[in-house]
Every structure is written in structure tokens, then in C-alpha cells.
């Protein structure tokens, strides 16, 4: 415990203290329920001292790297200003400095970095810009690791004591004493404070947040808007979970957390953990999951984890590795989030507006990609008679272009362009983002022919087009020609033809040949998850092509999660689908939580049932799996499986890293 001479400072180090209710007049504020996007801002870097840039042993401390390492420093307003400008470009509504402010240790970076941040914020406002408002992310690891005592030792904060509660609050008081009230990020006038993990406190008290609210109002004239992580006791205004960069989106009633991926390879002493970014697809998919939720019932605060935690590779800021890609993506999604856009993503087709030539009989004809932008093709035919036909060109909205030689940079740029264009096609139904499919109104083709002995060296020719047709989004049109007989056939396919019923669409195929016509209609069921229940149906067809006999429910999934506990039940009602091997039903409980010493635990139990077992409820197998992280260096794990005949499998392991 703290000694008698380990007193807390009576006054905070900043000038904005105390405040009264009148100091908050005419200040901007978000409203509860208003969709907003915030991010955690790590400002501990300093190029002058190499703090948080180079480790003590001289090795690189960062997994990903800022775009400009020459100016990065929490001491420099110019660096903060550039970060704020980039946040404006990214559509960030509020930032939360990740704060390690130990009461009384006012020479530390947590305090020294705040005045330059405020200065940068004021400069932008003077230039007519609107930088994101400033909230607080309270890194509660200082509750255990703080060097607070006069002898240099740490005081492990006990929130069941009066001194512990006062210590807990004083760190908050000191932060806000540096921030002008007009710059505060607020909800209904109350400043936003996020609290990191509860595991660092020695002990908790259910009244700890009530104490914070009472003391803050007495010192600053308003109560704060408190957002606690799931392990904290006591009443807060909202709950969130850290870990959105690893396994987002983590969704609660008011909040959702997500990030682009995770990689702490540069951090010494940690076990390997990498969540691949997949060229941005991880980040995109997590946002799409959020935007698919009904606007009226989904959370309203999105916590992007993080702006610039370059140690753990969770950054979306401008970086050497990714440029400004994640700034652009964040702006796209943040705008849709604020507009309450709901995205219903259909499975798209890459290069849906392509032109493809396929020979009916192989004579050496082959297709290969060509250079340039737009939809491109290159066809080379070398027949047995020695003729050579080269067709090469680009269709690009009615233009034909010559094709320059490829470079590696060209190929990388085109691949990224195609990936982003494919993503834009996938979200073409967004309320705020209208993307129309390309239509080939006209096109010209430049043809170069080598000297040949014949011009036509194939027996059949199929021409396939994939245009946008009327209200059909995915269509395929194929024409067939025979060199001797002329026209041989016509085929038209389309997927997802609307029926007027939101849950039913039609896949249509019409095949004409010279002597026959064939029409094939396949119904598709498009049910979405509602609430925590996901049904699985098949459509029963009658004896006639156009006849629907009914629906068959072949599976039902129930899944619900709260405060780190997820309960899931899956039942299959047919003989085709299985949960595991030949099991038809499964019940699972998963628990994630924090432990002491900065660790955590994962526990999961799954019970399977089978129709062929003569046991209570057809019980067949139960699996239990447990993983305990003790501190940052040791992990205990275990797995056990029981079947009707007894113990089936047992695995115990311990992993120590240093």
C-alpha cells in the first residue's frame, strides 16, 4: 500500500481547473444515439530520444512504421497537427489520447504531449478546419505499473479504499486540466472517457464509477460519459471491449470495436500473434458486418482500434507499409455509418463487365491478361497451318488504347484497382454510395495481323458478354457460331432476378439452339440473420419447372453473446449436414475474460448429440478446452474429450516465452 508520505497532489498541472457549469455554454456535443466514429491516439513516440521507436537493445520497436519518422514527437505541435489533418480526412469524429498519466509524475510524456496537441488543435480551428474533438482513453495499466511511491516503487491501486478511489480519479482530473472545455468530445454535454482493462486494479468497488462522476462534477461542473470495458464493476454509461483489431467487430448495445488486423512481432517477450490484414479485406469485412445491421438497433459509437499503435500493427494512420489506404477506407465507411446506411452485400462477380472469347475446338487459341486500365484482353491464335492472328486492345468506355509495356508497379497498381473496384461493386446497393455497372455503349478494337496464310483457323467461336441488363445485376450472354453452319446457339443466364419478395429470388437460364429451346428456373432463398437466430432452409420444387411446393427447414442456429460469454446452439434436421462427424446437434459455451498479471483466459465447452446413440438426449461427445495466459510470458492450456465409452482424448500443455 501507499505510505503516509506518498500523497496525491492537491492541484492538477493544467490551467483549466476548476470549471463551473457556465464554462460549458455553447460547446459542441454529440447526442446519445447519434452515429459517431472515434479512435485511440497513441502519442508516446519521440524521434529525439527514440522513445517507442527504437528498443533499448537498438532494434526496431515498430511493426509498421509512420510515413514520416523524422518529425514524429509528442513534443511537437507540427506532428500532432498532421495527425489531426489526417483524422479529418479519415472522417474521425473524436480522438482519445491513450493516457498513462500517473498523479504527480508531471514530467512524463503523457502530460508533456497534451499542450502541443491542444496547440495543434487550435491552429487548425484558426485555419477554419474542424479537427476531431478530444476524449480520454484511460490506460488502466497505470493502476499497477506506475512508480508512484517516493522510493520509486509502484502503488497497486485498491479501489475499495478511499485513497485508491481518489488516486483513480486524480489521473482523470489531471488530464482534463490540460484540455480546454470547448475541445472536449461529449455526449449530451458529458465528456467521453473510455476505461481499459479492469485486471490491473488490485481490487474493485461497485461504487468506483459513481465516485468518479461525483468528483468530476464537483471539479468541472458536469458529469462525464463513462465507457467501461466489460470486466469493470459498477455502473457506466456504456460498455465496450478492447480487442477489435484482433477479433472485431466486438459489438455491444452502444459500442462496436474493430480494427484492420494485428501483428506485435516487434514487441519483445510476446508470443506470436498475427491477424492478417489481407490487403485491407479484414478491415472491409468488419465494417461491412456493422453496416449490415439494422440502423435502428445497431450500436452508435464505433471505436476504431487504433489510429497509430505501430508496435502492434493495428494502425490506420498514414504509414510506410500501407500509405493512406486505410485513411481512405475509414472515410468511406465513416460517412456511411453517420448516414445510417444499411448495406446488403450480394456475392459479386469480379470483372463482371468482361468480354471473353472461347474456341469451340482447341486449335492453339488461348486467352491471357493484357496491360493497361479498364477491361482488357489479348488473344493469340496459332493454327496448324502456321497462321498467326493477334488481337490486342482495351475496352474503356468507348475507347481503344494502345497497351504500354508492363512493369511490376503497373501490375501491383492494377491489382489494387481491381480489388477496390470489385469492393465498390459489392456495395452498389448502399443508400449513400451509388455505383452503376459499366455498360459498353460502343467500343473500338485495334487489330494487328501478322502475315498469314489463312485468317480463320478455328472451327467454332463462342462469344461471351457480361453486361448490365435492365434490372438484372449479374447476367451472361453467350453466342455460338460454327464455321461451316453459321449460328449454332444462344444462351442467356442471370442470377438474383427479383420476385417482389425480399426472401426469394430466381436464377434464370434460357438456352436456344437451332432446333430446340430450354428454359431452366432455379429459386434461391435469401434469408438474413434476425436477432440471434439463423435459420437454414431449402426450397422444395414440384414436378413442374415453375412450381414451388414449399420450404424445408434443415437447420437452426441460436447464438448470443454478452460480456465475454457466448452461447451457441446448432441443430440440423436432415441427414446431410453435421456439426461434427455424424453428430446432428451441438451446444457450445465460450467465455473470454481477463486474469491477473495482465493475462487472460479462454474457456470453451462443446457438447454434441447424435441420433444413433442410446443415451440421455442422444448425447455423443463433450469437449472442454481451456487456455490461461499468466502474465505475458506463460500460457497454460488443456483439452479433454469424453464420449459414451469414457475419456477419448486428453491434452495438457504449457508454453513459456522469454
Task: Describe the protein's architecture and organization.
This protein has 658 residues and is of the alpha+beta class. The protein folds into 3 domains: 306 residues, Glycosidases (TIM Barrel, Alpha-Beta Barrel), CATH 3.20.20; 91 residues, no CATH class; 124 residues, Beta Barrel (Lipocalin), CATH 2.40.128. The protein is 16% helix and 31% strand. It has 9 helices and 31 strands. Strands 1, 2, 3, 4, 5, 6, 7, 8, 9, 10 and 13 form an 11-stranded mixed β-sheet that branches. Strands 24-25-26-27-28-29-30-31 form an 8-stranded antiparallel β-sheet, with no helix packed on it. It has a 6-stranded antiparallel β-sheet with strand order 14-19-20-21-22-23, with no helix packed on it. Helix 1 crosses helix 3, helix 1 crosses helix 8 and helix 7 packs parallel to helix 8. It is globular.
CATH architecture of the largest domain: Alpha-Beta Barrel
The biggest beta sheet, please? 11 strands, mixed
Category by helix and strand content: alpha+beta
CATH class of the largest domain: Alpha Beta
CATH topology of the largest domain: TIM Barrel
Q: Number of helix segments?
A: 9
How many extended strands?
Answer: 31
Amino acid at each position: 500500500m501507499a505510505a503516509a508520505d506518498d500523497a496525491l497532489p492537491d492541484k492538477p498541472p493544467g490551467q483549466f481547473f476548476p470549471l463551473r457549469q457556465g464554462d460549458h455554454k455553447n460547446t459542441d456535443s454529440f447526442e446519445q444515439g447519434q452515429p459517431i466514429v472515434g479512435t485511440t491516439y497513441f502519442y508516446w513516440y519521440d524521434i529525439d530520444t527514440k522513445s517507442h521507436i527504437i528498443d533499448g537493445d537498438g532494434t526496431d520497436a515498430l511493426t509498421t512504421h509512420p510515413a514520416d519518422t523524422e518529425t514524429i514527437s509528442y513534443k511537437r505541435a507540427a506532428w500532432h497537427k498532421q495527425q489531426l489533418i489526417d483524422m479529418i480526412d479519415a472522417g474521425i469524429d473524436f480522438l482519445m489520447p491513450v493516457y498513462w498519466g500517473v498523479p504527480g509524475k508531471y514530467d512524463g510524456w503523457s502530460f508533456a504531449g497534451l499542450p502541443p496537441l491542444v496547440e495543434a488543435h487550435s491552429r487548425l480551428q484558426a485555419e477554419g478546419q474542424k479537427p476531431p474533438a478530444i476524449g480520454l482513453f484511460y490506460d488502466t495499466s497505470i493502476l499497477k505499473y506506475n512508480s508512484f511511491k517516493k522510493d520509486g516503487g509502484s502503488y497497486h491501486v485498491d479501489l475499495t479504499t478511499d485513497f485508491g478511489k481518489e488516486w483513480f480519479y486524480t489521473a482523470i482530473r489531471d488530464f482534463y486540466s490540460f484540455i480546454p472545455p470547448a475541445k472536449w468530445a461529449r455526449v449530451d454535454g458529458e465528456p467521453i472517457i473510455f476505461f481499459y482493462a479492469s485486471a490491473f486494479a488490485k481490487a474493485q468497488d461497485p461504487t468506483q464509477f459513481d465516485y468518479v462522476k461525483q468528483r468530476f462534477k464537483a471539479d468541472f461542473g458536469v458529469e462525464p460519459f463513462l465507457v467501461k470495458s466489460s470486466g469493470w464493476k459498477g455502473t457506466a454509461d456504456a460498455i465496450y471491449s478492447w480487442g477489435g483489431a484482433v477479433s472485431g467487430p466486438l459489438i455491444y448495445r452502444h459500442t462496436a470495436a474493430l480494427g484492420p488486423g494485428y501483428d506485435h512481432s516487434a514487441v519483445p517477450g510476446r508470443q506470436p500473434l498475427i491477424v492478417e490484414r489481407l490487403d485491407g479485406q479484414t478491415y472491409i469485412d468488419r465494417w461491412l458486418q456493422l453496416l449490415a445491421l439494422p440502423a435502428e438497433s445497431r450500436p452508435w459509437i464505433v471505436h476504431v482500434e487504433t489510429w497509430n499503435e505501430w508496435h502492434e500493427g493495428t494502425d490506420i494512420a498514414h504509414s510506410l507499409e500501407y500509405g493512406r489506404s486505410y485513411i481512405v477506407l475509414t472515410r468511406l465507411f465513416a460517412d456511411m455509418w453517420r448516414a445510417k446506411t444499411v448495406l446488403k452485400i450480394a456475392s459479386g462477380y469480379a470483372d463482371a463487365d468482361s468480354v471473353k472469347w472461347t474456341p469451340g475446338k482447341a486449335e492453339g487459341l488461348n486467352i491471357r491478361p493484357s496491360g493497361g486500365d479498364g477491361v482488357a484482353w489479348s488473344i493469340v491464335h496459332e493454327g496448324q497451318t502456321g497462321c498467326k492472328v493477334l488481337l490486342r486492345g482495351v475496352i474503356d468506355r468507348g475507347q481503344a488504347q494502345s497497351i504500354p509495356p508492363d512493369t511490376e508497379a503497373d501490375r501491383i497498381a492494377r491489382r489494387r484497382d481491381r480489388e477496390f473496384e470489385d469492393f465498390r461493386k459489392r456495395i452498389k446497393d448502399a443508400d449513400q454510395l451509388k455505383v452503376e455497372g459499366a455498360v459498353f455503349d460502343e467500343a473500338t478494337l485495334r487489330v494487328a495481323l501478322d502475315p498469314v496464310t489463312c485468317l480463320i483457323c478455328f472451327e467454332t467461336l463462342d462469344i461471351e458478354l457480361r453486361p448490365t441488363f435492365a434490372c438484372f445485376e449479374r447476367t451472361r450472354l453467350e453466342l455460338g457460331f460454327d464455321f461451316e453452319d453459321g449460328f449454332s446457339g444462344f444462351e442467356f443466364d442471370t442470377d438474383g432476378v427479383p420476385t417482389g419478395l425480399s426472401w426469394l429470388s430466381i436464377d434464370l437460364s434460357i438456352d436456344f439452339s437451332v432446333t430446340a429451346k430450354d428454359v431452366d428456373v432455379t429459386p434461391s432463398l435469401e434469408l438474413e440473420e434476425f436477432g440471434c437466430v439463423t435459420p437454414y432452409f431449402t426450397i422444395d420444387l414440384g414436378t413442374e419447372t415453375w412450381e414451388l411446393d414449399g420450404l424445408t427447414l434443415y437447420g437452426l442456429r441460436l447464438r448470443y453473446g454478452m460480456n465475454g460469454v457466448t452461447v451457441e446452439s446448432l441443430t440440423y434436421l436432415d441427414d446431410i449436414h453435421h456439426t461434427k462427424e455424424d453428430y446432428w446437434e451441438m451446444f457450445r459455451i465460450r467465455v473470454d475474460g481477463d486474469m491477473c498479471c495482465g493475462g487472460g483466459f479462454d474457456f470453451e465447452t462443446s457438447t454434441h448429440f447424435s441420433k444413433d446413440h442410446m443415451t440421455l438426449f442422444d448425447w455423443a461427445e463433450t469437449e472442454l478446452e481451456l487456455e490461461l495466459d499468466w502474465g505475458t510470458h506463460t500460457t497454460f492450456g488443456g483439452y479433454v474429450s469424453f464420449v459414451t465409452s469414457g475419456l477419448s482424448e486428453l491434452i495438457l500443455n504449457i508454453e513459456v516465452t522469454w
